[in-house]
Amino acid sequence: MTSLPICVAALYQFTRFTDCAAVQAPLQQVCDTQGIKGTILIAEEGINGTIAGTDDAIAAVLGHIRALPGCADIGIKFSRAAEIPFIRMKVRLKKEIVTLGQPGVDPVGDVGTYVDPQDWNALIADPDTIVIDTRNDYEVSIGQFEGAIDPRTTSFRDFPAWFRARRAELLGRTNKPRVAMYCTGGIRCEKSTAFLRSEGIEDVYHLKGGILSYLEHIPEEESRWRGECFVFDERVSVGHGLQQGDYTLCRACRHPLDEEDRASEFYENGVSCPHCHAQRTPQQRSRYAERQKQMRLARKRGQAHVGARLAGTDDR
User: Fold this and answer.
1) What DSSP letter does each residue of 57-103 carry, written as one string?
2) Burial of 102 (0-12, 13-18, 19+ CB in 10 A)
């Protein structure tokens, strides 16, 4: 794995930027100078993104980012790739680095308590702990922690409405309600704890580093995780030890596919799968088939094709 030439860095940090445009331009310049590809989001609440390039180039860009206000200890997850999995480099200005759509939430100054992976099992095993998965339904479908509640949301911005509708039922389960939340890499559960705090819930916890940190540090024989973890890169899913999993990705709907899905009569690589076939018109499937054809031709020519991009980088 370490012999692969390209370094991929996924990063985020909640911090306060008073002038986002002043952060954007120099960061774009250093990424372009170093030949980095990927996407970085800048908002008043912080920075979030995934970038790829050579080790030296990534080190130079991360050095620049760590010099930004509040980013000295920014969380970064590294992986390796045979080639850069992105087409271009964009540093974009956004209202939020992960979209929840709740203006009163403060993920910088008022969040829940971090829980290290080594302490997570004891927390979620406690019957007074309400465990909530903050990820989207297609992510939860391939794996989750034992006993976790699945909100069945299709977007993170749906989480506040789901919680408000279920609040009485959820918190009425115990005399001393304690809420523990988790997500892929930490950013969504960190912001969701800030949301619960804004709703008056004080005893709130989140898994530090997310599922990926748990799978990296907790031995499988001690694990309370079941299944695989969806990731937003070319691996699609990982298991314990962050070993690549068995899932692939439907290029039409971005749903993870297992062996049974790929054996379905509705599966055609790059065109459709059992999860989206009924929702797509023949015209759409025809366009997807043409895109897949152009991708194959581009690979034969040794060129990148925009259709080869994987799922987005904003939900980890």
Assistant:
1) HHHHHHHHHHTSTT-TT-EEEEEEESS---S-EEEEE-S-SS----T
2) middle
Question: Per-residue pLDDT tens for 262-278?
Answer: 999 999 998 999 999 99
CB 155 within 8 A of CB 136: yes
- Domain ranges in the chain? 6-93, 113-227, 259-301
Residue 230, strand partner residues? 237
Calculate the alpha carbon distances from 10 to 5, 25, 177, 233 in Å: 17, 20, 33, 10
Residue pLDDT, tens place only, 7-61:
989 999 999 999 999 999 999 999 999 999 999 999 999 999 999 999 999 999 9
Which residues are annotated as catalytic? 183
> Distance of alpha carbon 9 from its chain centroid, rounded?
13
Q: Which DSSP letter does residue 8 get?
A: E
Task: State the number of CA atoms in the 13 A half-sphere of 217 facing the CB.
Answer: 14
Q: Choose the CATH number for 113-227 among 3.40.50.1820, 3.40.250.10, 3.40.50.300, 3.40.50.1580.
A: 3.40.250.10
pTM above 0.70, yes or no: yes
